[in-house]
Amino acid sequence: MSVWLTMLKKDIWMLKNQWLGFMALAVVVTIAVLAAHLLGIMDAARSAVIVGIVLTGSLFIVFPAQLYRGINQEVKGSAALWLQTPQSGWAMFGSKFICSLIGSLMYFVVAYVLVLLLFHAGNLTHALLPLQYEIPAHVKGNGIASAAIHAAPAYVSVLAAQVARVEFFIMTGLFFGGIYFALWIVLVYLSVRAVRNQFKKFGWLVGFGVVLVGTWVLGVLQSTSLYARIFGWGKVPVLDLFPSEVRTLLAGHLVGTIDLGNLAFYALAGALLFYLTGLIIDRYLEV
Questions:
Q1: Surface-to-core class of residue 229, CB atoms within 10 Å of its CB (0-12 exposed, 13-18 middle, 19+ buried)
Q2: Residues contacting residue 205 through CB under 8 Å, at least 6 positions apart
Q3: Which of 1, 207, 18 shows the shortest CA–CA distance to 96?
Q4: Against a cut of 0.85, is the pTM above it?
Q5: Domain extents for the chain?
Q6: DSSP classification of residue 122
Q7: Which helix (H) or strand (E) holds 257?
Q8: Alpha carbons 174 and 38: distance in angstroms, whole number
Q9: Which of 60, 105, 134, 236 could, after both became Cys, cross-link 178 (CB 3.0–4.6 A)?
Q10: Does the pLDDT at position 216 exceed 80?
Q11: Helix (DSSP H) and strand (DSSP E) numbers for the chain
């Protein structure tokens, strides 16, 4: 077995309890909510919405939590061993990254199934029922009311059937957003660690500077005409992600596009953050 695979195996062993902890907590909370509903202690719809939002939002923090813990354990517990391995900083960081990715994907599947279970168990379809009522004539001119959608009862089932699709899109967006966020967290953390001997307790200023300069540079790049020429492509209407019957129902009400070019830009930015993190690890080991 190669040195890198040995390192990956070690990282998986270090984080496996955290994987199990995240998934066990999600399952226990979901079971508790369903049990409370069966016992008449809690309203099913309300509790399902609250727990569903928590499970969905957790996709943004699961990957950063795992990656940060893996790096933190390595830096504080076995940094000296890095000097005895032929692996580069990028290889070591890549091992932590893949290990965290495996655990996060497992949690994604568990959380996704639990959220759909809560939706059906809580009978949240009734939340869509107001769509079938006609808008009163005296409020049709109101800005908020005019944005409401009038739909026949049959359309309620059409919208309810898209819950799994919508939930998948939301969780996927949060998942990848969490990966990008995690790269920034680790970059800042290692930047501060790398200069702690020189800056002592003011090392946090370096971390602040990394975020400030990095986000400023990205913002400047996105405002240039060169960015528009290179990444101004792939605008996909959100409605195109749904079946024809949903597009007909929501035409004119669900607007917006998914900018694939912009996503490609952030993917490249993430790759750059990965490179800089590996570079800092190598520099940190030389200190």
A1: exposed
A2: 199
A3: 18
A4: no
A5: 3-122+162-286
A6: T
A7: strand 257-259
A8: 31
A9: 60
A10: yes
A11: 13, 2
